Amino acid sequence: MSGLLAALVVVGCCAPAAVVWYRTRPFADHQRRRRDGTDDGSAPTRADGGGTVRAKPLGPRRWLTTVDHRDVGLLYLAFGTVAGLWGGMDAMMMRTELLTPSVSVWNAETYNALFTTHGITMLFFFAAPVFAGIANYVIPLLIGADDMAFPRINALAFWLLPPALLIARAGIVTELVGKTLEGALGLVPPGLLARIGGVGAVVDPLLLLEPPGVGWTMYTPLSIQSPNQQINLLLLGLHLSGVATTMGAINFIATIVTERGPEVSWADLDLFSWNILTQSGIILFAFPLLGSAMVMLLLDRTVGTTFFTVDGGGPILWQHLFWFFGHPEVYILVLPAFGLVSYILPKFAGRELFGFRFVVYSTLAIGVLSFGVWAHHMFATGIDPRVRASFMFVSIAIAVPSAVKTFNWLATLWNGRIRLTAPMLFCLGGLALFVVGGITGVFLASIPVDLVVHDTYYVVGHFHLIVMGVIPFSMFAACYYWFPLITGRWYNRPVAVAQAVLLTVGSALTFLPMLVTGMDGLPRRYANYPEPFALLNQVSSAGAYLVGLAAVLWLFNMVQSYRVGPPVTDDDAWDLAATDQRAREWHHPSGRPTQRAPAVSDPAPESDGSEADTDGGAPTDDAPAEPDRASALDRSTRDEQIGGRGPLRLVAAVTVAIAVLVVAGRLLLPLTGFDSTTEALIRTLNRRLLLVAVPLALFVEGVLVYAVYRFRGGVALRTPENKSLEIGWTIATAFVLLFVAVVSYQVLGSPFVAATPEPERERPADAVEIEIVAEQFDYGVRYPAANASVADADVIYAPTDRPVYFEVTAEDVLHSVHVPGLGLKQDAFPGQWNQLHTRLLDTGEYRLYCAEFCGVGHSRMRTTLSVVPPAEYQDRVDALADEAENGTAEDRTAGNGTAASATAGTRSAPAGGVAGPAFR
């Protein structure tokens, strides 16, 4: 009965929508033409001479067999849209759960599966395919090519993606089918189903697969030990998507290198093509490695191979292999977004991009440096401190080319003629968020700060300010910019502007509070969290709902505008010829023509008020005449404002100001030396970095806002070349980042942060050693000096004013001991002892939890680190030893050799070596 009721509800909701769709005028006109015999099912398009020709007929056969780059591009875009909405729904469900501190909406298993599938879907099946679709459609038009170099391979690369997505997310698909069948078969008389074994015989096989809950990084050994067979399908789906992406990258490289028209030299190649070329080069090196690692992991799960076993250091090996792909993957996603902003933003600034060559060089630099930063995801794994320091310097250095791009975009806006069209609004909103995301990323490159905030919501906020800030914003900018080219129609401009505002505000509300909660130590991947973080989490959830609303507005705008949008009647839809910004794709012979060819006798299109200057559109007869562009585009004395010594003086002034801040930071916030606590050292370092980062971020955002306000409309000046300015702000950026690297390295010189394993004989006489063993889902602790150990410890004791050596290991899977209130963090690997060295000066109780995802009960892995005076510490430890001894004696009397509440054990290897677990 419930199934029938659900069917009636679905039909009742869909029927009115179908009637409205059918009765819409363009659809009705199309049906009328078909009845009259004046429409053969093909779409009219413009010929070069101004007439009309018949395009390929619509229908499934066209889309299933096409090798045309434009059709393949549209297929990519449609697929990416579906995947993005699917992954976005996962995010909405997560944020709904996080509205309350307790687990009240979904259970922990569902929450773990949601952040696993959300990350995998958005990274592998949304961002990359959408950019591939945009590139497929426009790059051949931009470079003067007839098609992609290998059209059939191009189509094959796409058709590998839909099955890859279904395989990777088969758990949720089979569950939905199984639940639907269960409801439907409930309406069938039981006697009819008895012959095939009942409802269970049909439904149970579909419910065997469950959505994977191992995290999108699939860390071993958890991903090996999990019995969920969906993980095998997930690995196969991701491997298939990697093959498709690699095939597409090879095609883009071949097309850009060999298929350029005679008029397109390397110097004339547009920036979007440069970024796609660099992205494709990164893909060729990164994705095959990931595919090989996934095959090895699949063999470990199914065949019993030992690639990632604990005995051979497999958990560390998996992290190296995964992050060698994982961090270049960030640039694989971001580089096309950079290219779109660099291509679209100058169109509506009325001038060429400032510093074209430097932007190209910065793109190539990112492509090279991206492979030298992967280990900054592994600062807490116990790798050699010298290796960590080298990766820290490279991770900081890679921020220089990204900063150069930002300054070039700002310089392009300066003295431009800014038109606040929908594509421009998305570029500006993404740029504003990217500035904050980029600066917060520098903190994560600093090892001491990274150790504290890496597995907190700070990383979630930073990462999403980058990928959410520039990636979807650039996608929407490109979508609206090329919508007239692709469809021959205009979109609904007020809705587009509203979407841009909603997306910008929603993204800021969602991810900026995460920076605050992360700094306060809120761990990520927890379905429940402490009560004090409730308000900021609710603000983030409200922002996420605004982002979801913006996505709904976009989808409505695309569908409705494609159906009933006003036809585009001019090949220069954005009025770019007046500023010499019209590009090749708008008049390429193979590009999609507009509905009607431009003619001298064509009347000016009527305006209904929706085509205001705030979003492009041709001026009406009543509009004021535009200023004389010819004189504005000539070289004038005003060019000295951006091409002469003025900008150099500005850069010099900013550099001097930063130097003053650096000196003030060293004088006002001096590092307290080797006798300080880890917390004090890291907090001091964090204050120093904030003293530089906050004024710098405010300065850049202020320049952006002022440029938009000051140069909106007006007259654009010709973009000059100024190598001195380019070199100046590159040096200034490098100076800031050098300061970050130096002070971070200075903090690393403290033995309480370096965590270098020391032989026990070289430790101070008053040093205290505490062993912590992490196990799903509790902690065991041993105090070797008193020969006392406690399983499932509710409290771990540590003394003040003495060197303390925490030695951590794991029983089963990867764990991470994290005490954010004291600045302590160290990963715990099975079969390996990692050392954490500190000095504690203040008494108190501090929250200790597992930072790395370790299974379904991950959020339960919490305990308390109680810091007490040395005398009290000794009393507490002696009491635990006596309790353990008495418990053992009582057990022996009862014929049981194990203590009821405590056990004693010894470590079988020295610090830094490999040993078995101390106890279970």
Written overview of the protein:
With 920 residues, the protein is of the alpha+beta class. A five-stranded mixed β-sheet has the order 5-4-3-7-10. A five-stranded mixed β-sheet has the order 6-12-11-8-9. Strands 1-2 form a two-stranded antiparallel ribbon. Strand 8 (815-819) and strand 9 (824-828) form a beta hairpin. The protein is globular and about 90 Å long.
Q: Can you tag this structure with a few keywords?
A:
12 strands; alpha+beta; 920 residues; disordered N terminus; 5-stranded mixed beta sheet; disordered C terminus
Q: Provide the low-confidence segments as ranges.
A: 1-13, 15-35, 38-54, 589-614, 616-644, 892-920
Rg from Cα: 31 Å
User: How is the main sheet built?
Assistant: 5 strands, mixed
Helical/strand content category: alpha+beta
What characteristic shape results from the CA principal axes?
Answer: globular
Strands of the widest sheet, in order across it, are 5-4-3-7-10
For the termini, the CA-CA separation is 51 Å
Average residue-wise pLDDT: 79
Q: In percent terms, what proportion of residues is strand?
A: 5-15%
The count of DSSP E runs of length 2 or more, i.e. the number of strands, is: 12
Number of helices: 29
- Percent of residues in helices comes to 55-70%
